[in-house]
């Protein structure tokens, strides 16, 4: 039977955004943008350990002196969050479809706890982020105290005096740390930066950075609860 | 020693499939798990039952034919070995050993422990080659290649295409396989010139086949019988990114995937 077969083709080529590799590169870049914000926000927050006027002046500076620039940054961050989540959801659905029949037994032999829980730590941190913005930026939720616009220092102290607000904050920030400890390294891998020596350093650096970030953030509610900041 | 093998039995792709337990009494510690299956199959044939289907060829860990998930780990609990190299002394007398096929949408079921891995061949066909002019072989010393580069290429070229990386990945991604093929050719001067086009074509085929995405968690490299490093995935991503930026021609169109609608 000498039939000349025409090789059947996929209906279309696969664009950058359609490929899982492209989506992961977008996740790496958007993750890096969010990480820059996390570092900046932490440094701003640490002014809580100075006199109240420092952080209040800083808040006034952000909300009045550079309000246009602030909205540009907020727009970029919102776009980054949106793209990061869109890519995650699409990739998660694709991965779920890639294994319709699961294993009866499957052991994890090499992956870190952080890497396996990215799908959980991410959404919980998002839920926290919404609560956090409603509490400290908008002032809609401020349990057991009155939110005073402009009095950043007072709001933080009265907010964190409520034990469950602090507990929720500390829990979420620990999950953010877990997310970062894998994500910071994974981002380099997704954009193609790896080297036998570099990779080892990056993994350690990612964990160390995540620990510093978590400690920097949770030092504030802990200090409020202990009465160091009042 | 005596072991109980809990094996996935499935007549064909349309059959539902189920686990069946078999007791194997005369197991020697020096047998490989494939030889243990041979012993079981002989007794099944004598009893008039259908033997367990599994793939195998060289039985010395270099052909990439064998492989199934043994107690939840692709190729079994020993690192850097294929199923054919896994000897029964690594199990205890009376153990129950679970054997399951590679599970991925891109690897459709054939029978029992055998799956169709043609999707990996499609990825190779898309770009796992170098375009060279014919003629006399060039002078061997005319193209110096540093040892580090040669080693990097050889480490990636050790991939036998068994599919354990896909099986071990929680996302059923073929990133380690594709990365190994891209690295093996792309770091050498002969293959470097078309690395962008190669990465675009192979990544496109990998995506068309319906493999999942890489979350860089590293289960693949631990399950890999050739211990291919995770760096090859970064190399694939780098070549794909650079290729996407520099690309001047139309994007390559993948061939029809093994599983339609993937």
Q: Give the helix/strand class of chain B.
A: alpha+beta
Averaged pLDDT of chain B: 95
Count the DSSP helices of chain A: 8
Distance between the termini of chain B: 44 Å
**Which stretches of chain A of 5+ consecutive residues score pLDDT under 50?**
none
Main features:
heterodimer, A: 230 residues, elongated, B: alpha+beta, Ubiquitin-like (UB roll), Fumarate Reductase Iron-sulfur Protein, Chain B, domain 2, 2 domains, five-stranded mixed β-sheet, two-stranded antiparallel ribbon
Task: Summarize the structure in words.
- The complex is a heterodimer of chains A (230) and B (262).
- Chain A is mostly helical and 230 residues long.
- Chain A has one domain (20-96, 112-226).
- Chain A has eight helices and no strands.
- The model of chain A has no long low-confidence stretch (mean pLDDT 93).
- In chain B, strands 2-1-5-3-4 form a five-stranded mixed sheet. Chain B has a two-stranded antiparallel sheet with strand order 6-7.
- In chain B, strand 1 and strand 2 (18-24) form a beta hairpin.
- In chain B, helix 2 runs parallel beside helix 5 and helix 3 runs antiparallel to helix 5 (175-186).
- Chain B is elongated, with a radius of gyration of 20 Å.
- Chain B starts with a strand and ends in a 16-residue tail after the last helix.
- Chains A and B meet through helix 1, helix 3 and helix 7 of A and helix 7, helix 8 and helix 9 of B.
